[in-house]
Design goal:
- This protein is of the alpha/beta class and 778 residues long.
- The chain has 3 domains: 123-199 and 429-554 and 563-625, Rossmann fold (3-Layer(aba) Sandwich); 203-415, 3-Layer(aba) Sandwich (Dimethylsulfoxide Reductase, domain 2), CATH 3.40.228.10; 655-771, Barwin-like endoglucanases.
- The strands form 10 sheets. The chain has a 6-stranded mixed beta sheet. It has a 6-stranded mixed beta barrel with strand order 25-32-29-31-30-33.
- It is globular and about 75 Å long.
Length: 778
Amino acid sequence: MGIMSSSHGPDDHQVHEPESVHLGHVKSYAAGVPAVAVALRRGVEQMGPLRTAKTLTKLNQRDGFDCPGCAWPETPGHRKHAEFCENGAKAVAEEATKRKVTPGFFAKHSVDDLRTRSGYWLSQQGRITHPMYLAPGDTHYREISWDDANRLVAEEISAMDSPDEAAFYTSGRTSNEAAFVYQLLARSIGTNNLPDCSNMCHESSGTALGASIGIGKGSVTVPDLEAADLIIIAGQNPGTNHPRMLSTLEKAKHNGATIVAVNPLPEAGLMRFKDPQKVGGVVGAGAKLADDFLQIRLGGDMALFRGVARLLLDAERAAPGTVFDHDFLDNHCAGVDDYLRLLEDVDLDEIVQATGLTRGQIVTLAEKVASSDRIVLCWAMGLTQHRHGVATIAEGTNVLLLRGMIGKPGAGLCPVRGHSNVQGDRTMGIFEKMPESFLAAQDAEFGISSPRKHGYDTVAAIAAMHRGEIRLFMAMGGNFVSAAPDTAFTEEALRRCALTVHVSTKLNESHLVTGTAALILPTLGRTDKDVVDGVPQQVSVEDSMSVVHLSRGSLPPASDQLRSEIAIVCDLARTVLGDDHPVPWRRFRGDYDAIRDRIERVIPGFEDFNIRVRKSDGFTLPHPPRDDREFDTPNGKANFAAQPLEWLPVPEGRLILQTMRSHDQYNTTIYGHDDRYRGIKGNRHVVMVHPDDIAAFGLTAGDHVDIVSEFDGPDGTEERRVEGFEVVAYDTPRGNAAAYYPETNPLVPLRSVAKGSNTPVSKAVVIRLERVGDQLPR
């Protein structure tokens, strides 16, 4: 179809909806001049030329705001004048748009009408300008005052039989200060139901690292990556998901690093980088990044790490004392002997089968690991979103422990986070099972009694809503419906709530899947000026490498009705808890420094918070394994994980599907229908399959199919289905397939989760393909 009609009102913004799929050239490099051109075009479309110039020059600068697009840090003391990437610029353009969704828009469009629109169309309409309320039985959202909105939430909380009938969700765009007061509100009410986006992405990382090294955060800094001589990037696509990482990798290459990419798909950002701020990135070939590309089968990463570990053991036995770091193992590690006994039984033929790699490729990687002095292992959701995601990350950690690569300059573990403050939110207490040390310190500081019973994570919260056990669901940012798995089940769960509340900047699908009643509370974005009683305020964030720094907006808000997330939480807290509550909500609302003063008394590492965060590069939080080779585990050691090997065989006549982003996408926000790097344009309803698999299934590239997932249920095999996807021949491993989310989220059942972390298994979905109008044999 072409441009959407504007028959519903002249204020609607016309957008191009999907057309037929067009296949173009698969890119062999990331960034370059095309990326700059796309970023500027999107900026001008959304903001106009002057606003684009004003906004992008402030992005990721010391006197500006932090990009909400990812959590990749900057090199200390070396920020560029244009320290942004294509997708970061798109994210900012979407937030800083001049387009507006006013009460008049909602008067023209019923909720049922808006449900017929795509998420792309909804997001393109612009910034929400006023608080909106959908009353029970109403067909349209209507404007509501802030005071009345707060009273509605307070009345719902008062009607609950237990505080645990409320769930408070958090997106990773929430600042440190907003996250701290948000969790303080939830615990003051009496619940630890604090599901967040981490539960769906890097929870497996935190679970594995917490058990192995005593802290669920990466152990490296940007200078470590730049000094490494071997960087392994597994299950991550930096060109699309973390583009500013490419500059760091380019510098590492310049300093002599070898980079090995481990991924089912050949991604442009893993191959070559054209830095548009350098002459070579404009007229030259750019910088080659990956020296080796290991096209691994989905779910085979644990087997790869296990195979490498076995080969390291063989090399150590052949030349004792030359491979293992015995001093580190003897003084800082536990479980070494159990793990080495486990390696005795490794069958390299099984490793080859599990990974889809050749024995030579595995041996070569092991040789690089054995001979390198400074090794960094990077990963993202390609490792975390598997049934054995926790075990996989623990196995990669085992390999680095054997070589003594923790607490050593130029070496360590690097889980690459997504949202700009997803790591900071956890530090601030957004977690359903915060440790006693945090809760006790907070209680002592504020004179409250935080609950100790663990709350619900995201998957558990959805299940509880579906059982009718949650009356109030409140989301601080995000697009919960599109981010969560098992879409139909999640939607039904939300509809069983009495009240759903979304703190948002823009319209999305979650606003249209409501409880009996619903509120949309419009908030300031990272680019907006935040002024309280004439005093400019600023918030802080924590990046993927534990650096905390300030972020301050520079643009006039879209409406005088917008409130900061902090103001929204504090006003709600005063309405719910009263002005005699021991937490100084009124003061926090008007003075973010006052929040930081209290954070430093509750959370270790934030001493002199207000002073240090105002330094040009902020400050780095302590990380005992990195800083002193100290491990906050029960035995005070770094622990090897000796777990049975797991991998994912492909059932006969089936494929294993991974869900993923396109290049024109940030999490659930769709910027357009093109995936420029992969050469797929015009439509996102595609499934990428190896040409030999297409032929084996009796299909032809271009056929339209339904994708049907299969999984074990309590009553036998159960299925989920998405319809009308075009088959695209693509360079995937045999037996594997790929498709975009959120379109394929319905295929991921809620109970298909990673062991230990409860993270949805979105990278290992067993599927079959049924030609439209023709069921293939089962």
